[in-house]
Amino acid sequence: MDNFLPKRQRIKQQNRQFILDGARKVFAEQGYGAATVRDIIRATPLAAGTFYNYFTSKEEVRAALNAEMADTLRPRLSEGRAQAVTAEEFLSAFFSSVFALKAEAGLEAADLRAGFEDLRADLENAAQRGVFAPLDAGAVAAALLATADEMAGRLAREGGDTAQATAAATSLFLRGVQPPL
Amino acid sequence: MDNFLPKRQRIKQQNRQFILDGARKVFAEQGYGAATVRDIIRATPLAAGTFYNYFTSKEEVRAALNAEMADTLRPRLSEGRAQAVTAEEFLSAFFSSVFALKAEAGLEAADLRAGFEDLRADLENAAQRGVFAPLDAGAVAAALLATADEMAGRLAREGGDTAQATAAATSLFLRGVQPPL
Amino acid sequence: MDNFLPKRQRIKQQNRQFILDGARKVFAEQGYGAATVRDIIRATPLAAGTFYNYFTSKEEVRAALNAEMADTLRPRLSEGRAQAVTAEEFLSAFFSSVFALKAEAGLEAADLRAGFEDLRADLENAAQRGVFAPLDAGAVAAALLATADEMAGRLAREGGDTAQATAAATSLFLRGVQPPL
Amino acid sequence: MDNFLPKRQRIKQQNRQFILDGARKVFAEQGYGAATVRDIIRATPLAAGTFYNYFTSKEEVRAALNAEMADTLRPRLSEGRAQAVTAEEFLSAFFSSVFALKAEAGLEAADLRAGFEDLRADLENAAQRGVFAPLDAGAVAAALLATADEMAGRLAREGGDTAQATAAATSLFLRGVQPPL
DNA sequence: TATGAATGAGGCTTCATTCAT
DNA sequence: AATGAATGAAGCCTCATTCAT
Question: pTM for this one?
Fold first, then answer.
């Protein structure tokens, strides 16, 4: 945010970000397991050795990426839920924010999993306010996250209308699959 | 199945199976991306060169593994749903068979995804029979599979009662999260 | 010695020897510390990866080299001393065999040190037979080895007559530096 | 010695000394060959680039270290021999000064070798005065230095009494190993 | 067909050295 | 002058793959 930094510091921050961005891209394309440090460097304008001025391993980059995600994404992930007063608003806010973040920021399953506790807490809270049925919040949170991730993946791979997907998912979790009597 | 094969054939089948078993183990432990052909061989009593008499790449082994899964697991995965006459029976059969297969056969997300089309077809069928509400079958299938996989993973990692988990999942998808009026 | 080996075995032995020979040369030229595994490979007709089929580190090569030295050199190093009946014969045999081995086999300080115990035992034995004065055998052995190594090095570097050097060293240790009365 | 220097000069001298001290330590621990410039810098409070303001290579540092040794150690190494009037005094002074310097200053083989010429000159001188038998001074110097280094090393590694070691070495070189008639 | 050693490409990491600050 | 990050060469090691046996 603040650009009033000595030049060296600014370059360091920039290079660190180059590596994080490259890693995000590489991890998304090949998966964490298949990615190599060299792949990360190659996704960067930096020289091979420079990687090790910033991180000591692929794992450390992942950790930094997760931390970054936590800082920037988790707030956005939960923001819509805060003011939800009905279950429908809650679900709708949840799914649309996941779909949006996946599209714009390459949100991944691991990042979502990091939001598990937030979501569960919000669900428990909502259940106590009577907004939700008194279900096992952990199970519901897991179901919501898994479903959102899977559907977001499908949207990304196969295209589709985000609004419509949000509506479908919301409806499913709101009323279930039981046919109207 | 049939053991009346000439010796050569039998050994060939056995070696092929060694490789598949080794690969399944290695993929499960390290993930497909991080696994190497050497890792697979090492999980086997065979020599390095022998691998290439059966497969030409890691990818080909994965394909064979998927086919094997499809042959042996998919039937078991869908068997319970065939005779379901209510949505509740359908969901219950689905979740309990996934949880059981995960526990006994190390079923993985990819295997489940292979069951996607079956499940969607069954869902569409059921919807036409009026057993389910007329929802987007693709979205529902994705939600069910993702949820089942996630919950099965949690059961495997943290322990828990399979029957209870089945009941919770079934209830969630049957009636949704809306509180009773 | 035995050449009646299947071809594969023969090649393996040969390659192992390539590496040992390369390593001996490289260690002698640059010293053990400065030598790299790559240097060793380069002193060989083999490919880089082949090194690791035989050894896992530079250190392991050194150990093998030491073992080889012990097997082939130590007997030759001590052979002359066995039948020595006077101190003069003993010393003369010792120095001439060290000078000869250094010249023909690149004997090194470490190899000599491996002969320390042999030499000390022989010295103690000789002292008990009255061939030597009753001195501290360890100190004498250390002095003899260090002197022999140093003088052999000088001979190798600066040239000189082996026989004369043997005589000088023998005389020094036989009678000491005290002037005749 | 002189501290009346402008501040800049003083700091320069200090940094140079940091490098020399670090290098001495590193060379002693890993050997010259295995040591890297980075190792030297790391043994120093200085930054990487600073090294090159003082030296251009590891080799140059070694040269400086040798020069330093020559200046400070060689005088002490030969001081005892100056007033020796008998061979016994000469030898005793030589060995005890080597053992002492090794213990307190980490004297190394290379440093000793730097004392070779001094020692040979002293030996020749002494031989002309009739204190020593008329032996090849070069060979005797080599023998004395090699023995002293080896025994000093043993003392350092295995402990032992310096005075006793001095006596043993002196006796050996004074009278040789020949048994009394 | 099975074996396992050889190969050299390529990944990981550290190094010497430079140079903007 | 001191700093310390950037660079890319080069060392270490493992890998996929081939091929003689």
Answer: 0.84
